[in-house]
Write a structure and sequence with these properties.
This protein has 334 residues and is of the alpha/beta class. It is built from eight helices and 18 strands. It folds into three domains: 2-32, no CATH class; 39-134, GMP Synthetase, Chain A, domain 3 (2-Layer Sandwich), CATH 3.30.300; 157-333, Vaccinia Virus protein VP39 (Rossmann fold), CATH 3.40.50.
Amino acid sequence: MAIMTTRKTEVVFAPTVLFRGVTVFIIAPSRPLMARFDPHSNLEEGIRNLLIQSGVSENVPLPSDVPKKWERFDDVVILPPSAFVSEFWNCVSEASLWVCVARCLGAERVFRKGEIDGPMRKPMIEPLLMSSRGGWAVRKENGIRYGYDILSCMWSAGNVNERRRMRQIAKKGERILDMFAGIGYYTLPSLMADPSITVWSCEWNDAAIEALRWNLKENNVESQCTILEGDCRETVTSSDLEVDRIILGLLPDATSGVDAAIGAMSEKGGMIHLHGLAASGEYDHYSSNWISEIQVASNDYDIRPSAMHRIKSYAPRWDHVVLDVILIPHHDYE
């Protein structure tokens, strides 16, 4: 038996004699010699080599702000706010550092994450290494493509289950109102549930509207959606809508849209999904308050709470939740 070692694999040649002295070697990999690609090790090794090239001793330990987690999609890596912020990194040029990070993590552009700011929900994100594409990137999730400008529009990976749920619960022929649509976080999953579904999507951030239009076209659902540009409390009220399901997806509190939402609800009733923040362990208190606000605005309906869903942790002791509320016309009880 012969053995040949390559860079990645130990290959075993097992000879088999067929007839008349003719020998055939069957080549079979025996065991991998190289470990599976580890981006964390790759990043640390790349950073270490960069530091050595910059005159830093290999015995100097790496700072704690070398990140252990990051977001990676498209050709983008988004670092956490705490990544590479100490004065230690003054020993290398910024350009070389970000090029090193990009190469080690298989990206072309590098950003550092900040907070979401203002009523437009604009992310505070720092561009560190850019390309001709600017901030535009495309995420793929549950068969849906979401394109958006990272510098102008937000994205919450933690809402993945709620986006999936919107697709699961949308029904054939439903008319849906998405009052804080953004780039189509809940609009797109709802539309993808069935071609008979129609959605009115409200948004006032120009960058988000541009992304929403692109996403509707990219996912072949633009004919099912009408975009209402501007303040949803005004556009919904003036549009004379009649819908079956309403999504109020704004944090920290979406109750500002309740009055307009109730006015757009079908005479047959329907469902409202109200997003908000609730203290951990005190969901009942917040649920009661929100139901009371909905009840005040909906004289023609009986309000029946359906469920409170925890979406994700938002901050210490605070959760992002969604209250599902069913509106039933009073005459159904007569």
